Amino acid sequence: MPTATDSSSATRNPACAVPDRLLELWGELRDLKSLAELLDWDQETMMPRGGSENRAKMAASLAGAIHQKLTSERLWETILACEEEARSAGDELLTAQVREAKRDASRARRIPESLAKELAEASSLGTTAWQEARKGSDFGMFAGHLQRLLSLAKQKAAALHPAGKAYDALLDGFEPGATEEQLVPLFDHLVAELSPWVQQVVESGRRVDESPVLGKFAKAKQRELSRHAISAFGFDFDRGRLDLSVHPFCVGVTPTDVRLTWRYLENDLRSALYGALHEAGHGLYEQGIPEELWRTPLGDAVSLGVHESQSRLWENQVGRSIGFWRWLWPKFAELFPGQAAKTSPESVWPALHTVRPSLVRVEADEATYNLHIALRFRIERALFANDLAVADLPSAWNDACEELLGVRPDRDADGVLQDIHWSQALFGYFPTYTLGTMVSAQLFQAAQESLGPQDGAFADGDFAPLLAWLRKHVHRHGRRYGASQLVEQVTGRPLAADDLLEYLQASVARAYGL
Ligand code: ZN
Fold first, then answer.
1. Collapsing DSSP states into helix, strand and coil, what is residue 240?
2. Are 497 and 470 in contact (CB under 8 A)?
3. How much is the CA Rg of the chain, to the nearest whole Å?
4. 176 three-state secondary structure
5. Which of 7, 3, 176 has the alpha carbon at shortest distance from 104?
6. Where in the chain is the domain with CATH 1.10.1370.30?
7. Among 81, 62, 110, 73, which Cα is nearest to 19's?
8. For a Cys staple, 272 with which of 250, 264, 376, 425, CB 3.0–4.6 Å?
9. Containing H/E element for 243?
10. What span, in angstroms and rounded, lies between the C-alpha atoms of 455 and 453?
11. What is the DSSP string of 245-299?
């Protein structure tokens, strides 16, 4: 039997620095995860409805196999041996590889199998209960499940990080290294600026003419418009797909097989186009993970926040620019000649920057979306600090919604019951949405400082310089640097809300003529 110490520099892959022995184990693990992702994609796009019960068993078996591999003694000993090797060789790349492998394995190893099973079961029951509760707009039907999910999540946090804050331990699962203490000032600053400013826009009584993007837009033509834009961004359809689903998402099965999904509204062009541009941003990141890092511990995205920064950047900074619309115009006019005859890129543009405080996060505009996230972040922190009881959630939610957005839900379905996340024990996930949006604005600012203003290039359909910049500074590193280190390294300053605020306020002021 070979032993873990067999991994020597003689059998190391120079491109990724990982000893063959770790490479083999990690590659198998990655393949199983890819299979699980492929199953998820299939379930959302292709699977017949009757397939769900047996599919759940397949998914559970696969999840079990992944957990076994990730927590195996063989992998752990190999990681420790490689850690030793990285230390004596002083190899920075190998050190990063081992750091990420160790992080994933140790997180998995700290959670007792019984707790993992209980969590999986509670999430499955919780999701079904949440669906029913939401349908009836009755929080009482879900409260017991949520109580159990919270208590299990707290147990998980204690297992992961016995001495630390429970919320930090969960946050770390989505945004490695992030802490509540670090995020609170960012969110406080954002809310302090954004919330009163949104009210000001509302109270100005000004309206934006949205008719240029409203009308009747055939599904096939909307699909063609989205594919046209995504291809121009640089998404490689020989290594990717675009299919319909209920909720748009992106799955990077491998960097050479990246699946995007979209949905559409026949009467509003924005839903399909901006959903597709968003997912394409995720997809470009997945396609940008370099071949030599794939199937190694560094061959993944840095964090959910950094992933979201890529989707937001292509959706907002690029897709909502006037240059983009000037470039898109001939295609738009070819597909929708009647609509194009009545309007112009300049009159479409304001309709992409509306501000309308609403109750439901997934329907929110670009600016108020972040207030929806701030609300969830506030509530989650209160729940994990034991400052808020589950029974008091609906009223706490409604109060916070009124305070931040100026609107108050009159039923739970439009309030505390609107999101699926908590029913799946995803606590600490929400803040990554806004974190990513902040990162996107700061990255785009840095890109333009280095490349010059990009609007003219966009108008010429030249998106390649921006993609190349992102490939060089973000994509090609995989998980080599942590999120905050990466942002600081690329933009020359720590993450802050300023660039996002400036971008939002400037575009909205222009759209509303304020
Ligand atoms: Zn996203």
1. strand
2. no
3. 23
4. coil
5. 176
6. 180-512
7. 81
8. 264
9. strand 240-244
10. 6
11. -SS--EEEEETTEEEEEE--BTTBHHHHHHHHHHHHHHHHHHHTS-TTTTTSTTS
CB 512 within 8 A of CB 505: no
Distance 432 CA to ligand 1 centre (A): 10
For 383, the token pair is 């729940």
Angle at 449 between CA 447 and CA 453, to 5 degrees: 80
> Which DSSP symbol is given to 318?
I
Amino acid 332 reads F
Instruction: With beta carbons less than 8 A apart as the criterion, state whether 146 and 391 touch.
Output: no
Structure tokens at 358: 């609403």
Q: How far, in Å, is the centroid of ligand 1 from the Cα of 503?
A: 19
Active site positions, annotated: 279
Q: What is the DSSP letter of 215?
A: S
Report how far apart, in Å, the C-alpha atoms of 150 and of each of 123, 160, 234, 386 are: 11, 15, 42, 11
Name the packing angle between helices 20-45 and 73-89 (round to 10°).
130
- Among residues 181, 176, 187, which one has the least CA distance to residue 304? 176
3-state secondary structure of 438: helix
**CATH dotted code for 180-512:** 1.10.1370.30
CA of 232 to the centre of ligand 1 (A): 20
The CA distances from residue 473 to 163, 233, 443, 444, in Å, are: 35, 17, 10, 12
Q: Are 284 and 470 in contact (CB under 8 A)?
A: yes
Q: How far is the CA of 271 from the centre of ligand 1 (A)?
A: 14
Looking at residue 109, its amino acid is R
**pLDDT tens per residue across all 514 residues of the chain:** 444 444 444 588 888 999 999 999 999 999 999 999 999 899 889 999 898 889 888 988 999 999 999 999 999 999 999 999 999 999 999 999 999 999 999 999 999 989 998 998 899 899 989 999 999 999 999 999 999 999 999 999 999 999 999 999 999 999 999 999 999 999 999 999 999 999 999 999 999 999 999 999 999 999 999 999 999 999 999 999 999 998 899 999 999 999 999 999 999 999 999 999 999 999 999 999 999 999 999 999 999 999 999 999 999 999 999 999 999 999 999 999 999 999 999 999 999 999 999 999 998 999 999 999 999 999 999 999 999 999 999 999 999 999 999 999 999 999 999 999 999 999 999 999 999 999 999 999 999 999 999 999 999 999 999 999 999 999 999 999 999 999 999 999 999 999 999 999 999 999 999 8
DSSP secondary structure letters along 467-486: HHHHHHHTGGGTTSS-HHHH
